[in-house]
Structures are given as C-alpha cells and as structure tokens.
C-alpha cells in the first residue's frame, strides 16, 4: 500500500516537472540598420474612455531606432497625462491598429517565439520573455505617475523587415492594471535606413557609351592617331589614282 502511494507521488512529481518545460529563448539581433527611426504617436482620444471621462488621452510617443553597432533596438518612451491608478504596462502587439482605432483588434502580445504570457516575464532573463513585452523586460509605468519617460535597448527586437522579430508593421498598446487597453498606435518609419540609393547606380569613371572604358576616360592617343593616319592614306591614294587617270 505504502509502495503504491509512494509511486503515485513520484509519478505526480515527475508530471509536474515535465509540465514546467523550458521557456524558448529569443536570439539577440546584431544587424539592425543604422539611421532608421520609427515612432508610434498616441492618438488624441483614448480607446478606453473610463480613464478619460471628459475626453482626451495619454499624450506622447514611443520612438525606436537601432542600438549601437546594430545590436538591438533603442526605445525612447515619453508620455504624459496618465490617468489615475497604475501601474500601467505597455507592449508591442501582434497586429496594427485598424483605421477605426480599435485597440482590441491589435491581437495578443507580439510573441514570435510562442512563449505565451505565463509565467510572467523575469526581467533578469529577458531572452526568455515575449519580444513584445517591453514593460515586463524594462519596467512598467509606476502607479501615481502622471508623466513617464524611459530609454533602453532591447537586444531582441528587430528593424530588419522580414525577420521574425521585426515589429514596425505592428503596434504599441498601453494597459490599465487589469489589462484593459487604454490606447494604442502604429509604428511608422520617419527616417529611412542609411545607404539606400535613390538616384540609381552611377556609371564607372571613364566609361563610354557603346565601348569599353579607357583608364583616363578618353580614347587612347595612339589609337586615335592610327585611325587618323589610316584615313589620310586612303584619301591620298584615291587622289593619286585620279591624277594618273587624267594624265593618260
């Protein structure tokens, strides 16, 4: 009997350990383009009116640009006019805000590693958190604040279009403590990446239309002289032939 109970307990313990599977980890991004800047500017009116019974909204924006050397993304968060209460969280969400401003339509947190929201993000291990969980990794807006600013680098976000961690076609969403969505905005590129050519590719120095380029960009003198002498010899021969015909 005791053996059976012990085996049952061991089985339950093993099941619990198996259930606590290792969280997926995000890879650090090291190739973000320099110069590119994007920002998400909050709209004039909040989506959730409870915090703003007389109208209005949180004011401010979230700016994103490459971290030093292309490593991660530097986020600059500047907001004011926060409602009473808190703490407030904010995240990158999986979908953009539609034209009607419906923050609910932005879907869940941006989570390309499919980590999920549970367990809660451990900021000492940011690589195991959802990529979109900015507040979880870098801190929520403290309760009682009417203004908030923060600047930090998130190593796991990407500005490279087509990559799994790319977020500039998505949105930022601010939440009440009960996870109700207060307001949201789409990211928009305001400064393009450096190095993009807008005038096409310049022709190599010294190239000529319809022929191979010479080192100096002009026809070689020797080749030009040879062509001229050949032409003159042909003309002289024709004139001499005509003169001899007249003399006969």
From TrEMBL:
One of the record's GO molecular function terms: superoxide dismutase activity
Gene Ontology cellular component list: extracellular region
Signal peptide extent: 1-19
Gene: acw-10
Gene3D superfamilies assigned to the protein according to its UniProt record, in alphabetical order: Superoxide dismutase, copper/zinc binding domain
Catalyzed chemical reaction(s): 2 superoxide + 2 H(+) = H2O2 + O2
Domain of life: Eukaryota
Organism: Neurospora crassa (strain ATCC 24698 / 74-OR23-1A / CBS 708.71 / DSM 1257 / FGSC 987)
All copies of domain Superoxide dismutase copper/zinc binding, residue ranges: 59-175
InterPro entries, sorted: Cu-only_SOD (IPR053257), SOD-like_Cu/Zn_dom_sf (IPR036423), SOD_Cu_Zn_dom (IPR001424)
Enzyme Commission number(s): 1.15.1.1
Protein name: superoxide dismutase
Entry similarity comment: Belongs to the Cu-Zn superoxide dismutase family.
Pfam families with a match to the protein in the record: Sod_Cu (PF00080)
Compartments in which it is found: Cell envelope; Secreted
GO biological process: removal of superoxide radicals
Major localization listed first in the record, in broad terms: other
Keywords for this protein: Antioxidant, Secreted, Signal
């Amino acid at each position: 009997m005791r053996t059976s109970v012990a085996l049952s307990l061991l089985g339950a313990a093993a099941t619990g350990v198996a259930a606590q599977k290792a969280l997926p980890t995000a890879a650090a991004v090291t190739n973000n383009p320099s110069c590119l800047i994007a920002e998400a500017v909050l709209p004039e009116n909040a989506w959730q009116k409870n915090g703003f019974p007389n109208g209005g909204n949180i004011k401010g924006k979230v700016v994103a640009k490459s971290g030093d050397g292309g490593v991660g993304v530097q986020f600059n968060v500047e907001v004011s006019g926060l409602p009473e209460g808190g703490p407030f969280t904010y995240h990158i969400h999986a979908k953009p805000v539609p034209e009607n401003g419906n923050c609910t339509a932005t879907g869940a947190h941006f989570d390309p590693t499919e980590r999920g929201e549970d367990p809660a993000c451990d900021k000492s291990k940011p690589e195991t958190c959802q990529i979109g969980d900015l507040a979880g990794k870098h801190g929520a807006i403290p309760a009682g604040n009417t203004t908030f600013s923060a600047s930090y680098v998130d190593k796991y976000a990407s500005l490279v279009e087509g990559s799994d961690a790319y977020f500039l076609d998505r949105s930022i969403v601010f939440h009440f403590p009960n996870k109700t969505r207060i307001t949201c905005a789409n990211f928009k590129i305001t400064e393009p990446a450096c190095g993009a050519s807008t005038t096409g590719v310049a022709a190599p120095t010294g190239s000529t239309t319809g022929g191979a380029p010479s080192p100096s960009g002009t026809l070689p003198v020797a080749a030009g002289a040879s062509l001229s002498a050949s032409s003159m010899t042909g003309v002289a021969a024709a004139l001499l032939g005509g003169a001899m015909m007249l003399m006969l």
